[in-house]
Known about the structure:
Blueprint lengths: L1 H4 L11 E5 L2 E5 L4 H17 L16 E5 L3 E5 L2 E5 L13 H11 L7 E7 L5 E4 L11 E7 L1 E6 L9 E5 L4 E4 L8 E7 L11 E7 L3
Antiparallel strand pairs: 1-2, 2-11, 3-6, 4-5, 6-13, 7-12, 8-11, 8-13, 9-10, 9-12
The site of 2-oxoglutaric acid has 13 residues, from β6, β8, β9, β12 and β13.
Amino acid sequence: MRFFARGVVKDEITAMSKLRLRGFEIYKSYLDPARQRELIEALRPILKAAPLFSPKVPSGGQMSVRMTSAGAYGWYSDAEGYRYEKQHPRGQDWPAIPDPILSIWGDLTGLERLPDCCLVNYYGEGARMGLHQDKDEADFSYPVVSISLGDDGLLRLGGTGRGGKTDSVWLSSGDVVVMGGEARLAYHGVDRIRFKSSRLLPKGGRLNLTLRVVT
Ligand SMILES: O=C(O)CCC(=O)C(=O)O
């Protein structure tokens, strides 16, 4: 009982489980707390070298999610549209994708081809991401691997067409989702986060890393 009474998070004892929803493969508790902390440490130098920014969307608004990237390419958006860029908006190359992140890709996909982008999304209080498809990449036979860290986020999953029924699932810190096959071009988005539901990030918020093969 002292284990809980002293406030040690009960995440320490959750077990991995896998579920499949609309072709999305959801690995609950894939990363234990030690690996989650390892990823946060690996992300620190990336956020320092390539600070988070809030992209503008082509319609003129600004995304509530702040983001940056690692790898040869980074995702970017402004009045001219959605695309990948070889440099951070400040004009320097994106930092390399750290090995502890790349190894998750290898373990879950078994692919020799490595991702050339790790998009880092930060959801602060009230941030959300509307339903969208990931379709700025050249070859949709490669999956997208999505890693959740920090606060819980409500992921909404749809089909490959606009509109229609959707399902939702809460993602917690350490969950990993593989979007491949029928799910690769499925609409998805994050309706809301439960701010400060996790203690992984001292100031709260949710980090989501998506590994993508761009070229
Ligand atoms: O934050 C998430 O879980 C999903 C992120 C996402 O949809 C994207 O980066 O395209």
